[in-house]
Design goal:
This protein is an all-beta fold and about 140 residues long. The chain has one domain (about 10-135): Lipocalin, CATH 2.40.128.20. Helix content is about 0%, strand content about 60%. The protein is built from no helices and eleven strands. The chain has strands at about 10, 25-35, 40-45, 50-55, 60, 65-70, 75-85, 85-95, 95-105, 110-120, 125-135. Strands 1, 2, 3, 4, 5, 6, 7, 8, 9, 10 and 11 form an eleven-stranded antiparallel β-sheet that branches. It is globular, with a radius of gyration of 15 Å. The chain starts with 7 loop residues before the first strand and ends with a strand.
Amino acid sequence: MTQDFFSGTWKLNPAKSAFDPNHRPTEGVLRFERNPEGYLMTAEGVKENGERCVERPQTLILDGQERPIPDVPGAVAVAIAPDPRTIRVSGRMGETTLGEGSYVVSPDGTTLSATMAGTDAQQRRFQTTTVWDKL
């Protein structure tokens, strides 16, 4: 079995992150829970305006197969792990890419970098790189 570099709780490091102007959290927690197919990923945080937010949990099945995105009719997601320290995800609706990104754990296992790009719920393009410290 391959070593699991993702499982556990990660705390957002805003000082090392590069946020999109429309998406600037002040704090956040990201959790990866291993399961037989991949991971259950949950995230919560505090927006720039002080509002708390909890993201919909995501099941990352790392087999490269298209899977329906819950609550988004017609949308599918794909997740792969090209190596033990990297997870790549993408979502699309028809021929339109909704978003894509990667999660990469540092060689020492203490930092996770997440690079994401796509279209938000207000139909605005975004690109962000967040850095997370292992708790």
